[in-house]
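Consortium newsletter contribution from the modelling node. Members have asked for a concrete example of what our holo predictions look like. Here is one, prepared for the adenosine-5'-triphosphate complex that several groups have been discussing at recent meetings.
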Amino acid sequence: MRMSKTFIKTLREAPKEETATNGALLTRAGFIHKEMAGVYDYLPFGMRVINNIENIVRDELNKIGCEEILMSTLQNPELWEKTNRWSDQEVDIWFKTEVSSGGIVGLAPTHEEPITNMVKNYISSYKDLPLYVYQFQTKFRNEKRAKSGIMRGREFIMKDLYSFNTTEEGLNKFYDDVAEAYMKIYNRIGIGDITFPCFASGGIFAKFSHEFQTLIPVGEDTIYYNKDKSVVLNKEVLLPEVLEELGVKREELEESPAAEVGNIFKLKIKYSEPLDLKYSDEKNKQHVVYMGSYGIGISRLVGVIAEAFADNKGLVWPESVAPYKYYLIGIDDKGAKAAEKLYKNHEELMILDDRDLRPGEKFADADLIGIPYRVVVSDKTLEKDSVEITDRRTGKTKLVSLKDFKKSCK
Ligand code: ATP
Ligand code: MG
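And here is the predicted structure:
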């Protein structure tokens, strides 16, 4: 990408009403554009981060046998009435809208009902199970407060996965597989050290569910943890009987704000029963299918990563999700020419800042955008057949030979 060609522009200041750090920095650095409270557009840099995160999620889920689909946003009320989740009294975050030919449809806040109904067409015998399907989909929720930047949207991208098994044991095994895959995902996107599986309430159908909580000061949730005993739980299960079962005392737990970046639920027959999703066994006897659902907040993750690593100069992206690996700046005629040449051979990996600006302004933008490595080519570095590489995270600079730099671009 050439800075001279892209339509985005970095901003010295964030819009006043953008109070969350992630929203302010991502706006200034040109990753997102705010339409209204809780509603954002993703610009080229933001889109690349989203794509990188999605590809890591996709890779880990495909490894545990999941298939990708994409379901509709518009929802048929009839389905949701069967599970008592259509009325605004039961679910208070629905966006609903009218169809021109008459009637009302909903904008999906989640997909348990339609997916259960859809797979009925493909599941009849035990031979059709297990089935694991997921999607990356835009969800709509009329959230009361949308003041955390892209960490809480009224429109946001979620990865939602649904599992269908013949038995509870099958469900339990897959649930553990997903928990493991989730930690691999969080590790790969750079937040493994600050993200923990956390006990949460599972309603009346499963005793616990798990949330994946990332420790950041601006997280909207509060978690309680004891590192030695590897116990992490959220506020709603901070009850005497739960503490006893987990073998910890209240005073052994530390409190911390955290952001929920994913969660996993054993739904069992909560949706398959009312929606009549059954399979027949070897003896042709009918049984209800065991289900699970598993979410990851893809767009929230972009905000969480921004919050977790940003410093006073701007964003700091882990290499695995960064929009580009290198931010290339050529200084003076010779440097600019050498930079052009490097760029032409490795366009996919780098941003070339070829704008007619002073080096200082380019350095400031490199820091604000948060590209992992700033690469400077100048008369001085060329005298030594080298480039100067600065690590955005540590701020450390080193001279690297052109040969080695080209090798690292392979
Ligand atoms: P929260 O408690 O934060 O409202 P939730 O329990 O409603 O989350 P789920 O319905 O299970 O969340 O959604 C799955 C994942 O989607 C969550 O773990 C979170 O990462 C993300 N998510 C939920 N609501 C939002 C939102 N309004 N904006 C962005 N991401 C969200
Ligand atoms: Mg919610």
